[in-house]
Amino acid sequence: MSETLTRSGAAADTRRTGPFATTSGRRRYAVVLGVLVVLALLATYGILGYGNKADFMSRQWVTIAGLRIETVVVILVVAFCQSFATVSFQTATQNRILTPSIMGFESMYVAIQTAAVFFLGISGVTLLDGPARFFLQSGIMVLMAVLLYSWLLSGRFGNLHIMLLVGVVIGGGLGSLSTFMQRLLEPNEFDVLSARLLGSISNASTENLPYVIPVCLVTGVAIWLRSRRMNLMALGRDATNNLGLNHRRELMTTLLLVSIMMAMTTSLVGPMTFLGFLVATLAYSLTDTYDHRLVLPVAFLAGYTVLALAYFVLRNVFYAGGAVTIIVELVGGIVFLTVLLRKGRL
Amino acid sequence: MISLENVFKRYSDDVAVGPVTLDIPRGGVTALVGPNGAGKSTVLTMIGRLQDPDAGTIRVGGHDVARTPSKTIAKVLSILRQENHFVTRLTVRQLVGFGRYPHSRGRLTAEDERHISQAVEFLNLGELQDRFLDQLSGGQRQRAYVAMVLAQDTDYVLLDEPLNNLDMQHSVQMMKQLRRAADELGRTIVIVLHDINYAAHYADRIVAMNDGRLSEVGPPEEIVRGEVLSRIFNTPVEVVDGPQGRPVCVYF
Q1: CB atoms within 10 A of CB A11
Q2: Count of domains for chain A
Q3: Topology of domain B1-76+155-166+185-252, per CATH?
Q4: Hey, are the CB atoms on A244 and B98 less than 8 Å from each other?
Q5: Please, which residues 176-235 of chain B have a Cβ atom closer than 8 Å to chain A?
Q6: Quick one: which of A20, A77, B31, B164 could link to B199 by a disulfide (CB 3.0–4.6 Å)?
């Protein structure tokens, strides 16, 4: 740069470019993070220790808590997957409304499960069990999701409205296809299928946890390491390409990671349409920064806190632990509508 | 130097751009002009490798745009599209900071901060640098986008109608700043312009396109003539002598 420029810029050397616009933004972030951590710990303690008459951390206490720890792990995994997947998906698609769930990622999982029972029958499905079935099913879902959504997001449908419409129709279509196949199933087959499909927080398919956790960790780290790229991706296709990042490749990679995360959470507790949306919206309104390295942890903590608190209250106050997903969906759905109506546009 | 060789892009059976063969020398301001749908933006985005041509080669500063890794190209040329809408809420300085991505991969160094400050100052955004983009007027926002591509510190800067939606004052300011960027910073600026008068006044070279093909290339003195412009724009244009001895086109 020329001399004149260097001189005019010299006085401004103290200025820094950071993820927060103001120092109060930074302080607010620290407070939000602190409050969420405290709430999360409280909720965890509540789930593990509520009605636990033994002394805290005594052997009896730990034994009782150990019986409940599985729920905490499930909530952790679900919150982790939903938050990371939704934030990444929204960045990749450059919007704050659509989420993988709304676009029908989970309906696809249900459809694949149903199709397996429908076409192979009980004998065929039970032939393949354990890790092989889990990885096969997740693999098929990831493959289908990447194919379908990379086609959908390829830029052919530049318009968000059309994408939403196509996504919702695909989701609905896969849903009705599943229902149709379920109608035709024999009662026995239907029984096997519903045992697999109807997961919930208190009745999760925990036999999959040993595979789900490592897969989630690896995928989560991959998403985390891509934070800086995602910061850029949020600026859109042209800006990303201009700054030397191949947008198409980044989009495909993100979609792959998102589908893996969604396959993991759906295999545990089944579809949760609005949790991801709730969590991402909360995270963005709480942090007000573009930096994914700051948004992702808040989204995860918010997700964990919401799920854990909902579970604690429903289980211990209303004795309806099975209804957690229903309540979270209700709240999430209301937030979704409110945001949509207040913004007045997509 | 930017050189295009038989660059061709087909949109449909009867809509195509090219083949275009063109050399744009280093330095100065080059204006791409022409009627709507002439292919100006297509040519610009193909040079900026945001669109792939169906045939032909484009070289910028010796790099084949299609073959060289995008990372390398990002240090040679920067391109700004017409419409920029971000979901993320960014301040001016944060936005300009993104321009440093090709150099720092998102980890800003002191050197990057210096470039950011320079670009911010260059476009007189010093007082606005901590404002959010959605708190700015259209003209200020456009300046912030241009600051971002200047902070990218590339020899070649491509701009797609940066005067769009700017009023008289901001259009003139923007053109003066771009002129300075070319003169003082030695950048090669290629700009798509709608108003021929701006091109006549600020550009060193005018590339006129019509119906997907190059129609005239040359300095303003050669292009800004009644019969030439009438042919390019399919509209009767009269060129009169304006102040400072520069021609002014009248086409109302």
Answers
A1: 11
A2: 1
A3: Rossmann fold (3.40.50)
A4: no
A5: 184-186
A6: B31
